């Protein structure tokens, strides 16, 4: 959520800023703006809505755009104040001498605002960010040094921030600060960049410096200086960025979401290539830093995540408990952080996040670390804040995921959790599960081909999507290991089509939700051969008796039961334990095609953000 870009060098700053912001659109936003230094003052351009609106605002000002080589830009996801032009960033102070962009939330902004009002500050917006702009300007009036003013100001601020500021009296520098919000410096030759995420700068440089919490910095075209919170100059290492610019190309697909769904076979292959040599080989997890002896002492596992990652964690609970025989609790990070959780040195805590910057999960992980638990992080971003908190880091290596709705990263999380379950079981020496795990490993190896079989035959799913695209409500049901699949399928449909979809454990249908069933309420049932197949089939009968439209997603259906369903999607044969990895592809495609038929903004659904960096 929100995106920052800053540039100083010899290029046209406006082009770098707009291009960088376009590669941050996946983060979710509702307004945009840039500030350019021009003739010793700042020209600020803002627009409500999508980036194209900002581009249209800028077009008449080509004299400024051609001349300016330094600037900062921002896309905003509203937290304080409506998504209006006046609330858009950059923000400034009374005398317009300072401009500032900000990601995060300032928790004590009301208290600071009251103090600044007494000192003569006049506020135009409803944002917490404008408070920071006035505060830094006030400190500058005392110090006449922008970096020192930034250092003094952030000591008074509570909450999360990534700041990027310029002052008219210091024409050749950008000053930055970070706490609990991502910020990276792109290192160039005769130019440097600042961004909230690397897609914004990957086109220009493959080298970056990651700021740690409470660090500040001064960025010029030829130098980068970073300071700790005491003001000491420090040496942060330059790292090589692991992505290519082509990773943020649609490669001929209509939407990034469809491209990323189609990449899932290769994502699975990529993970297995370094972790699993064959079905008869043990899982290799060099990144896992607990010995076999310590693994045997684990008494419980806690999985902490949000949204889609939470659903992956729920699948992980089933498979870990089934094989490794360790009790697993799965909890939303936002709930975990506000209660006195029970964890100790014998608790393995697994944090899952696509971005590795999910604020609630970061807070939860820090709390667990304080209790002595070993922290395992499963993330798509090995360069993220969560990755740096890990005792054991399991990068899923799905590549940059641009669409806000997570697809291939969910698949990568699932596969990582399956492998982790196998690994824990093997390290514990539970030999009675050897043959079961060997069969599951073989299914994992065959999974990419089965995913691609589904993706090559989508006409049935497209037709079902068109048929049900006009419905306003949807229910997804499943049992056992596919209950999380029902939740994730409903979430995907909600996220991108805005249809009111809800997932339930199928056995819970008669405990309330059945009251909603009639001919206007489609029910999608996931039923794979296994222990709960007959039970889910019975729940489908209950729905049918209430005249609900019924869609089945299954790897088997008896001839006598086919007439029960209005529509069926058959997936390739797969065991019940492994079936979530195939079922979810069907649900992703169904959500995608419904949203496409409805003409929705598939990759950037309203109100959502890819990286949720506020609690």
Q: Overview of this structure, please?
A:
The protein has 3 domains: 3-248, Aminohydrolase, N-terminal nucleophile (Ntn) domain (Glutamine Phosphoribosylpyrophosphate, subunit 1, domain 1); 256-449, Glucose-6-phosphate isomerase like protein, domain 1 (Rossmann fold, 3-Layer(aba) Sandwich), CATH 3.40.50; 459-597, Glucose-6-phosphate isomerase like protein, domain 1 (Rossmann fold, 3-Layer(aba) Sandwich). It is α/β, with parallel strands linked by helices and 615 residues long. α4 packs across α5 (129-143). It starts with a strand and ends in an 18-residue tail after the last helix. The protein is globular and about 80 Å long. Strands 3-2-4-1-10-9-11-15 form an 8-stranded antiparallel sheet. It has a 7-stranded antiparallel sheet with strand order 5-6-7-8-12-13-14, covered by helices on one side. 36% of the residues lie in helices and 22% in strands. The protein has 19 helices and 25 strands. The longest helix is centred in the last third of the chain and has 22 residues, at 434-455.
Q: Using only CA atoms, what is the Rg?
A: 26 Å
N/C terminus separation: 11 Å
Q: What share of residues are in beta strands?
A: 15-25%
Give the overall silhouette.
Answer: globular
Give the CATH H-level superfamily of the largest domain.
Aminohydrolase, N-terminal nucleophile (Ntn) domain
The helix content is 25-40%
Count up the helices. 19
* CATH fold type of the largest domain: Glutamine Phosphoribosylpyrophosphate, subunit 1, domain 1
On the 0 to 100 scale, the average pLDDT is: 90
What is the name of the CATH class of the largest domain? Alpha Beta
Low-confidence stretches: none
- Count the E strands: 25
Helix/strand structural class: alpha/beta
Largest sheet, if any?
8 strands, antiparallel
Named at the architecture level, the CATH assignment of the largest domain is 4-Layer Sandwich
Q: How many structural units, i.e. domains?
A: 3
Q: Largest sheet, order of strands side by side? A: 3-2-4-1-10-9-11-15
